[in-house]
Amino acid sequence: MALEEGLRLLRGGVDELGEQRQGQKHRRDDDNPSAEDDQSRHQTEAGDHASSHNYKTGRLNGTLAFSKHRCANSTVDKEFDCLRRILNYGVQLGLIKRNPLLGTKGLKNESRREIWLTKPEIERLLGCADSWLRNLIEFRVLTGARPTEANMFGQANVDLRRGEIWLHTLKKRTNLVVKRYFEIASLGPRFQALLQRLTPHPVTGLYFYNNETGKPYEIDSIDRVFVKVRHAAKLDHVTPYDLRGTFAMHRAMVVKNFRQLQTEMGHSNPMSIQSYLDEAGRFRKADSIFADASDVAALDTEASGKEIGR
After folding, report:
1. Do 211 and 295 meet the contact criterion of CB atoms below 8 Å apart?
2. What is the CATH number of domain 119-309?
3. Do the Cβ atoms of 185 and 295 come closer than 8 Å?
4. What are phi and psi for residue 257, nearest 5 degrees?
5. Close Cβ partners of 266 (under 8 Å, ≥ 6 residues apart)
6. What is the mean pLDDT of the chain?
7. Model's pTM, two decimal places?
8. How far is CA 71 from CA 14, 92, 98, 213, in A?
9. Would you kindly state where each structural domain of the chain is located, as residue ranges?
10. What distances in angstroms separate CA 152 from CA 91, 105, 138, 148, 206, one per listed residue?
11. What is the pLDDT of residues 137-161, one digit of tens each?
């Protein structure tokens, strides 16, 4: 694979350059490696083995293409673009002769903004889930929380005195940790009832955890169970990611303030926010799961969400 070859070439070039700069006169004796060298070699081989299993190759318009297991195609494109830049820099430094990723394309990016659940579909999906997954699905639909954000939600994220909750968001481009705040009243009585049902872990305070281990549910495990639940609900086209899109659409039906919706979603791209608002214009507020929020009338002009970075 081009990816593995590129990593191997770059790794070899950096190692060679390091040896030159350190002025080493003796090369490693490959016939009698030390225990430390042998362990390092096995770790490298294990990493290469894992890489080959995370990615798979295919043909797209006659060009070699890559996709990553359980990963959006857009994320694959970003990873390959980063690696392509690194390898180009390696060519400039003379570490490698060529960039094996030039001309390599990712798979087609398919937008899922048009895939979201209506109120009856939400109820159908929840009705097929066990209580632990039902609460988690409902939470993600009502808050737009990403998988990791939902898993890390606990007592510390709730301020009943101020009537607020907040979600932790990591901005990948800036590595800035941001808190997205919501007024509990603006999320409606359904969310308030959910919050009362949730029982925090006695030690960690987290709301969504495995009763046997006390640890947060693994995202892969959640996704595997979700596949069975969506099949039982006859919603096979829906993915866990679409729960966030469902929040965005239902929220856009009642929130007409562009900045507020962008803040509540934690999106930096304004185009995605506008697409939700445009699509939501075809529906009534009564079609939204947030239609019965006590301050829904104020959501058109006032921002219940706020974002604070640190």
Report:
1. no
2. 1.10.443.10
3. yes
4. -85, 110
5. 144, 167, 169, 178, 180, 307
6. 77
7. 0.66
8. 29, 31, 28, 27
9. 2-106, 119-309
10. 42, 35, 15, 6, 6
11. 999 999 999 999 999 999 999 999 9
